[in-house]
Design brief:
alpha/beta; 8-stranded mixed beta sheet; 24% strand
Amino acid sequence: MCWFVFYVVVNRVVVRMSFVRIGMAGVVICSVLCGGLVAADDVASGQTESVKRPLNVLFIISDDLTLNALSCYGNEVCQTPNIDALARSGTRFTHAYCQGTYCGPSRASFMSGYYPHATGILGYISPRKAIGDRATWAQHFKNSGYYTSRVSKIFHMGVPGGIEKGDDGADDPISWTERFNSQGPEWRAPGKGETLENNPDGKKPAVGGNTFVVVEADGDDLVHSDGRTAEKVCQLIHEHKDEPFFLGVGFVRPHVPFVAPASYHEPFPEAEMQLPEKVAGDWDDIPKLGINYKTSKNMKMDVQRQRKAVAGYYASVAYMDAQVGKVMAALQEAGIADRTIVIFTSDHGYHLGEHDFWAKVSLHEESVLVPLIIRVPGKQPAVCESLTELIDLYPTVSSLCGLEVPKRLQGTDISGMLDDPELELRETAFSVNGKGFLIRSQRYAYIRYRENASGGEELFDMQTDPQQYTNLVDDPAYAATLEKMRAEFAKTMRRVRDNDLAVSPRSKN
């Protein structure tokens, strides 16, 4: 079977025509892709061939990455020059929020275009059963004539277990033209390893599982999963540079274990790592369900090991950043950077000792806020402080590429923010963690544990208390604000459940 692709002018627009010849019978099938159309007048004006073609999509997602670890978001210790370069050439969003604060529901949400409480997915499964024959984000591009491929973790995939095995995890095969996994040794990598969690006397060797382990690994970048992911993506960019593509690039660092070649650990001596401020009585006004599942206390991590955790995390981020650089260089070398949309983000944020919390799941700011950078050819660099959600990516990128935006999607097309970074399309952002809910306005963060609030509530004034040390739920001065946020929660839940799916779960009260 052989495909032929060319461009013709129909009714003053350039249309990409695809023909396929099947077998000796010579049967010919024609398909028309209307995405990324360009006016015929533009062709006559001498624009380049790259402008005439549909825009490619390069979607890069890091796993468990807090924006606070990136130098383009203000970190002065962990330098991320490649992500910084992307931020300087695109729009960097400062108030982008995930819809689930752990991997499974977050990834199912932004790939399907539905909130977790629309699909019912609050675990580590594919959204396919919930959405039926509706197209995922990548599948929508595939159906529109794009080559779609994922390398490593886009839908949920177990880390480190799934990476050690090299399996597909909770992937959705129909979304992709091709799929590639990036197997790696993870915590078993040769080198200097140490378990930080539940190892107060330091006698426990490096162990597997979803636990805090640091490995200063022997060998180079290609020993590990992310290095292999970058290598494969670079290959795919060159192989498919002459056709429209949607490439999903899933880097698994800085997800635990904090494994990176030893050279990436050198800039971060543990003794020099600064920990967040520790406030006496910090947990006193946090409901029991608001205390994160991983804390300095229950992980039995003393200050020394906390510092080493930060150092190991930063080393993993630096290693991941280097892989981003390789992928971006390949885009330039292939000559298609000027017709490729690049998105960089994470599935959720991460605690590095704030409130003595570690890891994800929490609904506090460090866990729900994600880095988001979108670079679109022809758009001016900017910083956007408006509220956005990861669920907005599906409709936004579809719109930017000239594809139909399915009306059923629950996200918002934020492409206008790329022209006007002061544009505000949301009054609030919404996130969940399986036992609670967050409503985030520009000024306030309202957290509600259990849908009927029987697990307690939190209210923070993010203008006066950005670190969220003072819960204002019982403060009479904020009674009206609290009622307003409660009403906003009720409205949001109605909107989330107003969808075309058969699933509409309610949280346990």
